[in-house]
Amino acid sequence: ADTKVYRASTTAPVNIAVVKYWGKRDTKLNLPTNSSLSVTLSQSDLRTLTTASCSALFPASEGDSLLLNGAPSDVSGARTQACFRELRARRASLEAADPSLPKLSTLPLRLVSENNFPTAAGLASSAAGFAAFVRAIADLYELPASPSELSLIARQGSGSACRSLFGGYVAWRMGAQENGGDSTADQVAEASHWPEMRALILVASAAKKGVSSTSGMQQTVATSGLFKERIATVVPANMAAMEKAIAERDFEVFGEVTMRDSNSFHATCADTYPPIFYMNDVSRAAIRAVEAINAAAGRTVAAYTFDAGPNAVVYYLEKDTEAVVGSFYHVLGGVDGWKTAAIGGLKPLLALD
Ligand code: PMV
């Protein structure tokens, strides 16, 4: 009998969208109502490391398991199950085509996953988490899958995870097919295309977000009129402008579109009934600080964006580090809420891969 323990390890980075994914047209397959675009953060600063293993020695009664940051984590959710199913099906067809391959597809899987950033950073880690989860198992199974095909599987775990299969600047095309076959991510530009890009993470609160992205999206799609306008005209225009700004390394446009798109996304949340507020007073102070920094510089040197929570990510160029990072300490040092929680807990300067 085969008593070998098969094992594969991989890492996946965090990504922060500059044109946001917000809204599902199919909740089962995680198909979005709009395309989105993100910047992948440096793995030396923020990443998930995952090891997948399987063996006939693992008791079948234990089933599949996941140890996340040292604690057992539930794998029975529909999204996690969809990822297991997709990956096993691909391995099973390899095994069917080549009977000499070890039969791994029927063995229980053990996953061990660690983030290198503190939970206190208050960052949603599902993107890096599902991307690493999918790639670790794909590597273990030796699947001949491209990053684009893996993005299709990771998308079913968490929408934004499909963008963490690539470095640099990444677009998730919403696609048109009902089965989601064309709803995948692709790389718009390598990180080296714009090596001066930097991201600063400002932690307003490390608490877990109040309204999950899944229910927030569901409520927005169901009750916001503004949302219809966002997906019909605002996002398509932002996607086009953003891709052009990246191609031309135009930070003025990159920054303005980033801030406008974040504002548009949070406006649709405020337009739901009842309204959803992800930003708080501390978040709004960060917006004012960015405005003050840009006004003092006489141009856009910093661009804020907020996900489904109060923490800010600020993009800027390396040459403006002094103006941006220095000013944040200066401006926000006196603002309540930033005194203790601000900038601390996590290295403020995050270079991009
Ligand atoms: O991948 P999810 O389901 O956690 O949704 C992420 C949604 C945002 O972070 C708010 C936007 C985005 O594009 O990442």
TrEMBL record:
Organism classification: Eukaryota, Fungi, Dikarya, Ascomycota, Pezizomycotina
Name the record gives this protein: Diphosphomevalonate decarboxylase
InterPro entries assigned to the protein according to its UniProt record, in alphabetical order: GHMP_kinase_C_sf (IPR036554), Mev_decarb (IPR005935), Mev_diP_decarb (IPR029765), MVD-like_N (IPR053859), Mvd1_C (IPR041431), Ribosomal_Su5_D2-typ_SF (IPR020568), Ribsml_uS5_D2-typ_fold_subgr (IPR014721)
Enzyme class: lyase
A GO CC annotation given for this chain: cytosol
Domain Diphosphomevalonate decarboxylase-like N-terminal: 12-184
Catalytic reactions on record: (R)-5-diphosphomevalonate + ATP = isopentenyl diphosphate + ADP + phosphate + CO2
Family, similarity comment: Belongs to the diphosphomevalonate decarboxylase family.
A GO MF term: kinase activity
Pathway: Isoprenoid biosynthesis; isopentenyl diphosphate biosynthesis via mevalonate pathway; isopentenyl diphosphate from (R)-mevalonate: step 3/3
UniProt EC number: 4.1.1.33
Mvd1 C-terminal domain sequence ranges: 199-353
UniProt keyword Ubl conjugation, yes or no: no
This protein's UniProt keywords: ATP-binding, Kinase, Lipid biosynthesis, Lipid metabolism, Lyase, Nucleotide-binding, Steroid biosynthesis, Steroid metabolism, Sterol biosynthesis, Sterol metabolism, Transferase
The keyword Ion transport belongs to this UniProt entry's keyword annotation: no
GO biological process: isopentenyl diphosphate biosynthetic process, mevalonate pathway; sterol biosynthetic process
